[in-house]
Each structure stands twice: as C-alpha cells, then as structure tokens.
Amino acid sequence: MKAMILAAGRGERMRPLTDHTPKPLLVAGGMALIEYHIRALVSAGFDEIVINHAHLGMQVETALGDGHRYNARLLYSPEGTALETGGGIFRALPLLGDEPFVVVNGDIWTDYPFAALRRPLSGLAHLVLVDNPPHHPRGDFHLEGGRVSSEGEPKLTFSGIGLYHRALFDGCTDGAFPLAPLLRMAMSAGKVTGEHYRGHWIDVGTPQRLSELDAWLASR
C-alpha cells in the first residue's frame, strides 16, 4: 500500500511566507511540515510515498530528495499549475498502483496513527474526521454507524486524511477538479466509511496557526 502527500497548494493565506518557500517546507518545531508526515508514514509501514507539487515545486524535490534518508522511496508528481485535490490525485494514479492508497494534506499537523489505515477498504473511501476547529465551526460531513454522509447533524470536519480506491476516480479526465463532489457521490451510494479521531490535529493554514504550532511543539 502506498501513500500520497498533497503538496501542490499555492498557500495564499500563508503569504508572504509562501512567496519564496512552498508551504510544505515551512518549519514548525524545527522541522518542515511535510517531514512530519513522511516520518509518521514510514513509521506506519508506508515506504513508498508520492508527493505532488506545483508552486516552487522543485524546492520540494531538492529538499527531500529520493527519500533515502527517511528509509523511504519518494516519487514526485509535478503539476506545473496546481490541479486541486481531485485533479492532483488523479494525475498521480499511475504512481499509486492498483491497491487502495492513503492521502494526507500537506498543510496539516497531526499525531494520527497512519498504521490504522492499513486495513481493507469497504467501499470507495474511508475518511478521518475530527472535531470542528474554531475557524470551521459548521464542519463538513456527518458520521453515523461508521458511515459518512453529506447530510445530517452534527457534522465533523474532514481532516484531510483518507484511504481511497482508485475506482473513486472512474470517469475523470486529466485537469483541475476538486475531490469533494466525488466523495459526495460516493456517500450517496453508501460507499464512504469514516472514523472520528480525537487526537491532535491542526490545520496549519495561516501564519498565526503556524506560529502557534511552532510554540506548542517547542513546549512539548
């Protein structure tokens, strides 16, 4: 089973920090954000990791290399112009193989145990949901009986961590498109499972949140 880290976003809300540094290479607690994911994924048994990139993408490849120092094999999916989440995953499918694969957003920090996703996939996707953060109080999806739906209350926030079957992307074509509509169609067919993770999870979407994460990690 392979994993993918989404690292192609422009990071508009992170400007001016991202004017010269791609968002995944921003540092908190003495380490680049993307390195936390790589190390956690490798510890969980994922030694082949695909990373997409667009804005200043060659900096990502230069900084991380082939993955040897992480005891992993890093594969890159360059996009030039960012293809959004759905388009980015679709472009990378040839690198991800035929088995279900894990995807994690590059702009979050979490202590989620990725080994929990080394599991059979019942349906087209399995999503990790978290408590709604202050900046996203309404949440995204409803979880009940292990199934995720776009309707119902209360709603939880999608963490940006998921396990996907490549069949979720059947009928898609190369280009920019979001992931959410594909997930909602799969939910309407009852093919999306989920879990509620109550551990540490931070959406590092602004300089203030990056600074707060840096301080929190330094205090641990």
Task: Explain what this protein looks like in three dimensions.
By secondary structure, this protein is of the alpha/beta class. The protein has a single domain (3-219), classed as Spore Coat Polysaccharide Biosynthesis Protein SpsA, Chain A. The chain has five helices and 13 strands. The strands form three sheets. Strands 1, 4, 5, 6, 8, 9, 10, 11 and 12 form a nine-stranded mixed sheet that branches. The protein has a two-stranded antiparallel sheet with strand order 2-3. It has a two-stranded antiparallel sheet with strand order 7-13. The model has no long low-confidence stretch (mean pLDDT 95).
- The CATH architecture can be named as Alpha-Beta Complex
Mean pLDDT: 95
**E-strand count:** 13
Instruction: State the helical fraction.
Output: 10-25%
How is the biggest beta sheet arranged? 9 strands, mixed
End-to-end separation:
32 Å
List the quaternary state of the chains. single chain
Structural class: alpha/beta
Which regions have little confidence, pLDDT < 50, spanning 5+ residues?
Answer: none
Order of helices and strands: EEEHEHEHEEEEEEHEEH
- The H-level CATH homologous superfamily, spelled out, is Spore Coat Polysaccharide Biosynthesis Protein SpsA, Chain A
Beta-strand percent range = 25-35%
